[in-house]
TrEMBL record:
<comment type="similarity">
    <text>Belongs to the 3-hydroxyacyl-CoA dehydrogenase family.</text>
</comment>
<dbReference type="GO" id="GO:0016616">
    <property type="term" value="F:oxidoreductase activity, acting on the CH-OH group of donors, NAD or NADP as acceptor"/>
</dbReference>
<feature type="domain" description="3-hydroxyacyl-CoA dehydrogenase C-terminal">
    <location>
        <begin position="187"/>
        <end position="282"/>
    </location>
</feature>
<keyword id="KW-0560">Oxidoreductase</keyword>
<feature type="site" description="Important for catalytic activity">
    <location>
        <position position="141"/>
    </location>
</feature>
<comment type="pathway">
    <text>Lipid metabolism; butanoate metabolism.</text>
</comment>
<feature type="binding site">
    <location>
        <position position="120"/>
    </location>
    <ligand>
        <name>NAD(+)</name>
    </ligand>
</feature>
<dbReference type="InterPro" id="IPR006176">
    <property type="entry name" value="3-OHacyl-CoA_DH_NAD-bd"/>
</dbReference>
<feature type="binding site">
    <location>
        <position position="33"/>
    </location>
    <ligand>
        <name>NAD(+)</name>
    </ligand>
</feature>
<feature type="binding site">
    <location>
        <position position="93"/>
    </location>
    <ligand>
        <name>NAD(+)</name>
    </ligand>
</feature>
<keyword id="KW-0520">NAD</keyword>
<dbReference type="GO" id="GO:0070403">
    <property type="term" value="F:NAD+ binding"/>
</dbReference>
<dbReference type="InterPro" id="IPR008927">
    <property type="entry name" value="6-PGluconate_DH-like_C_sf"/>
</dbReference>
<dbReference type="InterPro" id="IPR036291">
    <property type="entry name" value="NAD(P)-bd_dom_sf"/>
</dbReference>
<feature type="binding site">
    <location>
        <position position="144"/>
    </location>
    <ligand>
        <name>NAD(+)</name>
    </ligand>
</feature>
<dbReference type="Pfam" id="PF02737">
    <property type="entry name" value="3HCDH_N"/>
</dbReference>
<dbReference type="Pfam" id="PF00725">
    <property type="entry name" value="3HCDH"/>
</dbReference>
Amino acid sequence: MKVENITVIGSGVMGQGIAYAAAVGGFHVQLYDIKRESMDHACQVIQRDLEEAVRRGKLTVQQADAAIGRLQLTEYFDESVKNADLVIEAVLELIDLKMDIFRRLDAICPSHTILATNTSTMSPTEIAAVTRRADRCVAMHFFNPVAKMKLVEIIRGMDTSDLTVAAVRAVAGQMGKETVEVNEFPGFVPGRISALVGNEAMYMLMEGVASREDIDKAIKLGLGYPMGPLELADLVGLDTRLRNLEYLHKTLGEKYRPCPLLTKYVKSGRLGKKSGRGIFEYDEFGQRLS
């Protein structure tokens, strides 16, 4: 099956990144969100990322213009998916929300449409079970920031077909991504490791082992990580990280119990970069303040 039209459901950090990668990859992209202001912000971020790619020599001006020309924003759910070959859901990590979206998609999408969830922890089998096309359901886990991260995890559900896996692998390749195929298990591969490292970094911060800056610096320089775990948590969103840990704690056990400091930050509204304050502070353009 050849995919030409992709719809992305959700225009948050992950959704806008996936839409960017899809448009740059040559696909016609519909980006849907229930909130117009979220889509407008996503469009600004995508435009900024395209301009940065031009400055860095990754794209020509013509390629960037063509990519933005292939992207359309819409507030109309049914309209956004009526011609989709592939729908990628990129909403909050809430299993009931994802299942509700898949149920709606199954009812209105063309029969050939593949439904993919961008979950980082949850079961594609469970999500697919609410549809009548479990063979065309799969998890495609992109990594943040999508424009720069090369990996896409492909996770089969129990009934996902070989044709579906081949199709989404080809899509990821056209987006310039490398893929790995992972057996379904909570957290998959990088997600489990990242959750453990990030949670332990929060415990070290809570215990006063080192400053937030020095914890990140030690991990980057001592272990070769491109980004410190606390900086990464702010980028992902502390609320997202907390939901992931709560799910992993429930499914995999005590070692994933969320750090109390993480819970406290989320309750106080310190959600990371998107709220202007998390473990670090940020200006209105998302740049970290010293």
